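We modelled the chain as a single entity of 210 amino acids. Its sequence is:
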Amino acid sequence: MFTLGGITITVLILRFIIFEFQESPTFLLYRGKDRQAFESLQYIARYNKRKCHLTSEAFASLTDEIPPADSESRPLLASRELQTQATFLEKAKLELQRYKALFSSFDMVRLVVLVYIIYGFDFWAFNIAGSFLPIILQRKGTKLGLSLKETYRSYIYIYILGIPGVLAGSLIYGRRRVALVVSSVLFGACLFAFTAVSSQTSYVSISALV
């Protein structure tokens, strides 16, 4: 447990020292923070070894003039202007008004409810796995005649494969709908197969495949 805690703290420190995440330029523009949005775009371009052709002068020359046909952009610019000039209460009221779009039609309500349900189950599953997986591994290892040291060494072997797993996930991102369906089916199959584990090799292999 001390080792797992040390790894977690190390990753937390690396998160703030090595990885520098930027806020979404779209979000910053909506908030009226043009300078920060420009800096975010510049950083993203440098990170990807590309040249950002947008300049600070171009940002400064932006106006709120919209063609009559572009009616969809009017609420965005109106709320953007309000973000830069409004009081705290006015901003809070604006934020609450944005949620009306989530319940504007039957299709939107159905989508919102389904998304909340899916994320709720995802949250519960993640917490249950994080809380009980070490216990399950220990009990399963004991049943196979493995020592506690061997059990947690297998635990490390299993999670090392999470690295190529993430890389594989980035490669199939373009077909993420199919990937989600296939991976869910395979995940369920692996869980059923895990109940039939009879050796350390199969125990590690199936867990690593998950």
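As a brief sanity check on the tokenised model: The CA atoms of residues 60 and 149 lie 62 Å apart. DSSP finds eleven helices and no strands in the chain.
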